[in-house]
Design a protein that fits this description.
two-stranded antiparallel sheet; 9 strands; about 500 residues; mainly alpha
Length: about 500
């Protein structure tokens, strides 16, 4: 008996020319799963559907990047009367905020279900598929499944695991089957095991034998038309990365580093450090680095349309969102915030505090992140608009992308691990490398003590992750109680988003 799969109901116009071959079915069409999953192209279309889902406003197109999570980290000015006032106060059950919470939960688990369906159909149809395509699709789906579960854990689970005992607590459900059955909650230790198992298997698949599947380090364009076995691998082309980003070996590794850091063990810290080091040393088959720091000319271009605001040369993985300009709209315009409640911007006080400028402090004046990614607006020029994701009316050369994992995070991981291991000079050097790449002219002194290095790491996260949603996770991982922009102390009530009511009732879930 044939089952039916309803494709994501997304307008077909979102597909750009380099991705047109991914999915050639009408957006409202039901097609047989038996037909869809009988070919390599069908699995490619299913993966594309997952990426489309990621771009929704409930998820990484808005709330899990530049909107909800950055409100929760208190970057933004509080506008009285706005729905987001309740975000600022962490009133998660408020009727104006609760839809954000349930949207994130339901949206991520929906994507997990799609990943599980892909993984199950892969095994059922393995004999029909090209071996290399099978490995790459499976590696990608496993990485996506881990990515979504990890963000669910970071949102709805406990933080500061390095300094607390959660051995008696239950984590979020880790779903590995495409089924209507209720998935039991496991311990945090068991959940981390599942996360790491998914990623380690994905890493092996995405690397292949002697790196044959590791396309980011392949210097031959023909690899994608004629893979190791003569396979057509154009769907996974790294050279279309700016418009059709794919998960690869290094994305899975970087995510694993995040997982190890969240887990908080000494062993995990060391493994995260080794992963980050591997990224720094990555070269393709032509001996060229696979990444570079963004060049000053790309950031400071006199024509704003050509400014590389997200520092795309440094991305390990980003999400391409063709309608990002429509999603953002006027949210980033701080010239007259009273005209509408839908505005996000930093106050002058917060901007100067984060970037260390004003009152005789000139550390951040030369910092690209301050000089070119913030813009004073409003009648008093004291509303600081965030420009990292500004689409310039849809005309930005480097628009339509939101970074999900980038190179600076790998340096911060190394700095933190070195700090915890007592290698303070090494930690300072990692921080200085990023600061120099951001245009900061004065280095941190090598005489800084542990607490001072820790403070500098925190400062860097604040500066680097405006509009990306990662600062909230960092605060939570460290259990930071006092944060810039929020007068009250932060604790579990502020850091742990509540499970949706229906999930608690129907699934008999235990959160606290």
């Amino acid at each position: 008996m044939k089952t039916k799969l309803l494709c994501f109901l997304i307008p077909i116009s979102i597909f750009i020319s380099s991705c047109e071959d991914w999915l050639k079915v009408d957006s409202q069409t039901e097609i047989s799963q038996d037909d869809m999953f009988s070919t390599d192209e069908g699995f490619h279309a299913a993966l594309t559907g997952v990426y489309i889902g990621m771009a929704s406003t409930d998820l990484y197109g808005m709330h899990l990047t530049w909107h909800m999570l950055d409100y929760l980290s208190h970057y933004y000015c509080l506008i009285s009367g706005s729905n987001d006032t309740y975000l600022h106060s962490h009133d998660y059950k408020n009727a104006r905020v609760y839809p954000y919470v349930t949207g994130a939960w339901n949206g991520l688990y929906n994507l997990i279900a799609n990943c599980n369906n892909i993984l199950e159909k892969l095994e059922e149809n393995r004999s029909k598929l090209d071996p290399i395509n099978y490995q790459l699709v499976k590696g990608e789906a496993l990485t996506l499944r881990a990515y979504f579960h990890f963000d669910l854990m970071r949102l709805f689970g406990y933080g500061n695991l390095r300094n607390r005992d959660v051995s008696t607590k239950k984590a979020i459900p880790y779903v590995t089957k495409y089924s209507k059955e209720i998935t039991p909650q496991l311990s945090y230790e068991e959940t981390f095991t599942l996360l790491k198992n998914d990623l380690l298997e994905a890493i092996n698949l995405l690397y292949g034998e002697n790196g044959e599947n590791c396309y980011r380090i392949t210097g031959d364009d023909d690899f994608f038309d004629n893979g190791p076995n003569g396979d057509d691998l154009s769907f996974f082309s790294y050279f279309d990365y700016e418009t059709c980003p794919r998960i690869d070996y290094y994305v899975a590794k970087a995510l694993l580093a995040r997982v190890y850091m969240w887990e908080g063990t000494d062993e995990g810290y060391q493994k995260a450090f080794e992963i980050a080091q591997e990224w720094f040393q990555t070269e393709n088959d032509d001996g060229q680095d696979c990444w570079d720091w963004v060049s000053r000319s790309r950031v400071t271009n006199s024509n704003k349309l050509y400014r590389d605001r997200t520092f795309s040369q440094e991305h390990i993985w980003h999400l391409f969102i063709v309608n990002l300009n429509d999603i953002i709209g006027d949210w980033l315009d701080a010239s007259n915030p009273n005209a509408t409640y839908q505005r996000v911007f930093l106050t002058e006080e917060v901007a100067w505090k984060i970037f260390e400028v004003g009152s005789g402090n000139d550390v951040g004046v030369s910092d690209y992140r301050y000089s070119y990614l913030l813009e004073p607006q409003g009648s008093g020029l004291n509303n600081y608009a965030t420009l990292k994701l500004d689409q310039c009316g849809g005309e930005s050369t480097y628009g339509q992308i939101i970074p999900l994992i980038s190179t600076p995070e790998m340096f911060y991981i190394c700095a933190e691990v070195c700090m915890e291991q007592g290698k303070l000079t090494d930690a300072i050097n990692y921080l200085n490398t990023v600061r120099q790449a951001r245009g900061i002219t004065n280095n941190l002194e090598e005489t800084l003590n542990y607490d001072e290095v820790r403070e500098e790491i925190l400062k860097e996260y604040r500066k680097e992750f405006v509009s990306l949603g990662q600062l909230f996770y960092f605060y939570k991982r460290w259990g930071v109680k006092d944060i810039v922009g929020y007068a009250k102390g932060m604790g579990d009530a502020e850091y742990v988003l509540p499970y949706p009511d229906e999930e608690v009732l129907s699934g008999n879930r235990i959160q606290f």
